[in-house]
Design goal:
Elements lengths: L4 E6 L3 H7 L8 H6 L7 H9 L7 H11 L3 H4 L2 E6 L32
Antiparallel strand pairs: 1-2
Length: 115
């Protein structure tokens, strides 16, 4: 059975959501988060708004959803698409890495210049 590979992507829409709520300065978000028990510095909030986070704690996500009355899906829309199996040029077999057990060393032959 062949498994279909999937490519997953997401968008970070915090800046758009803030603008929709007429909140344009990242520093305005600091006290709103603090009211919900999330204490972040102004620079941390600035990074949260202006860059796509690789990791995000659930309490921060929950606080943002509460502040802007949105769902996580509205704040972070995701997409997943099937990725086709790569084919090799010589045939119709899927391109796969060889099993490590199939690899064998190749004997080296030393040749001196002029031979």
């Amino acid at each position: 059975m062949t498994r279909q590979r999937r490519m997953v992507s997401y968008q970070w829409r915090l800046r758009e959501v803030m603008a929709a709520h007429k909140l344009y300065a990242t520093t305005e978000l600091v006290p709103l988060l603090a009211e919900r028990g999330i204490v972040l510095s102004a620079s941390q909030v600035h990074r949260l708004v202006t860059t796509i986070p690789e990791r995000l704690s659930l309490p921060v996500l929950a606080a943002l959803c509460d502040i802007f009355d949105v769902t996580p899906a509205e704040l972070i829309p995701t997409d997943a698409v099937n990725v086709g199996v790569r084919k090799i040029a010589a045939g119709d077999r899927p391109a796969t890495a060889p099993d490590i057990g199939e690899l064998r060393p190749v004997r080296a032959r030393i040749v001196h210049p002029g031979e």
